[in-house]
Amino acid sequence: LFTLLGFALRLPLLHRFPLREDEAIYGYWALHGWLVDPLFLQVWPDKPPVFLWLLGLAFHLFGHAPVTADAAARFVNIVAGTLTLPVLAVTARRWWGDAAAIVAALLAALNPFAISFGPTAFTDPVLVAAGSLALALAARRRFFWAGLWLGMAIMTKQQGILFIPLVVGAWAAGFRE
To answer: Which residues make Cβ contacts (< 8 Å) with residue 81, sequence separation at least 6?
Structure first.
């Protein structure tokens, strides 16, 4: 229910604001990667490739004409932000029980910053989704998958390395149970 609420609060903002400069350059790099150089061997963007690949896929699926490109780029983060909600709830339930899961899901769904930042074409919502999934998997002792998603977080944005202490802490706590 909270996941649907979070999606419903983010989706109306799909066309609310024009793309900022960084968002536009990410779109350019994504199209270049999708159409010309998928490994970014000719153009070296200042971001790791995962987010750019996801943008390229969104442009491929929804179109990259000016009418659809903004919505396609923003939809990636709306989906990432929405999928983060159940991941946070599952993690809270694992550590603190059902009541904590409900509170975590509700707070994340209604967070004004997450709602307003969700429909952007910045890298952060995908970073948070991947890092949160790594944390949730480490809390469930799925260490291979936690490491894989931690790597995805780092390959989405360099600041993904800041999830390392959280994932390692969850991993260490998993051995004490």
So the answer is: 6, 10, 114, 117, 118, 125, 128, 129
Residue 49 has a CB neighbour count (10 Å cut-off) of 17
Mean pLDDT, rounded, of the chain: 90
Lowest mean pLDDT among 63-67, 115-119, 148-152, 168-172: 63-67
> Are 129 and 118 contacting, i.e. CB atoms less than 8 angstroms apart?
no
Residue 15 has pLDDT above 70, yes or no: yes
Residue-wise pLDDT for 28-66, tens only, equals 899 898 889 988 888 788 889 999 999 999 999 988 777
Q: State how far the Cα of 127 lies from the Cα of 77, in Å rounded to an integer.
A: 10
**Distance set, CA 105 to CA 7, 26, 30, 74, 100 (Å):** 12, 30, 31, 22, 8
Which residue type is seen at 61?
L
Q: What is 12-78 written as a DSSP string?
A: GGTTSS---HHHHHHHHHHHHHHHT-TT-SSS--SS-HHHHHHHHHHHHHH--SHHHHHHHHHHHHH
With tokens 């360099």, the residue in question is: 158
